[in-house]
């Protein structure tokens, strides 16, 4: 019953976020398109270049994880999606490529934008902090979200 309530809450919050700022193609496609915009970006030094590569890899991670969870080869599908334009992406349920908006695979723009903003903010804090204390991740014996690729832990994105 708690899981059902949580799913309804998630759907309600996603709907509110979509009403506020609209939607983008889901399945990690919006992040792939964002990564494509910075792929040729060059930093002022090697450290910045490494940071750019890390950011690009992090933006590819949601799509890769969805594909892995579907039992497919992540590199092949990620490369096919990268060369696509606009809303073109991979539907893991039907195992087909196409316009994800037309297929009904959407993410609220606010959620995608916020994830990028918060991740970059945390990365900036980590760079400027001399010492950081974190908790070790807890071992999850049963991860109810493992089949969907949806995990609320942002550390899995990096």
UniProtKB/TrEMBL annotation:
GO molecular function: ATP binding; ATP-dependent protein folding chaperone
Gene3D superfamilies linked to this entry: GroEL-like equatorial domain
Organism domain of life: Eukaryota
Keywords: Chaperone
Protein family (similarity comment): Belongs to the chaperonin (HSP60) family.
PROSITE patterns: CHAPERONINS_CPN60
Pfam hit, one: Cpn60_TCP1
Annotated protein name in UniProt: 60 kDa chaperonin
GO biological process terms, semicolon-separated: protein refolding
């Amino acid at each position: 019953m708690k899981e059902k309530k949580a799913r309804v809450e998630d759907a309600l919050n996603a709907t509110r976020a979509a009403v506020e700022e609209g939607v983008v193609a889901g399945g990690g496609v919006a992040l792939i398109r964002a990564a494509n915009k910075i792929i040729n970006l060059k930093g002022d030094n090697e450290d910045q270049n490494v940071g750019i590569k890390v950011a690009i890899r992090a933006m590819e991670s949601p799509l890769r994880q969805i594909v892995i969870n579907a039992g497919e080869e992540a590199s092949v599908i990620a490369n096919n999606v990268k060369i696509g334009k606009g809303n073109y992406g991979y539907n893991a349920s039907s195992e087909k490529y196409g316009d994800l908006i037309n297929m009904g695979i959407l993410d609220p723009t606010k959620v995608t934008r916020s994830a990028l903003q918060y991740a970059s903010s945390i990365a900036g804090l980590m760079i400027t902090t001399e010492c950081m204390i974190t908790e070790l991740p807890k071992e999850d014996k049963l991860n109810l979200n493992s089949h969907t690729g949806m995990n609320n832990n942002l550390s899995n994105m990096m």
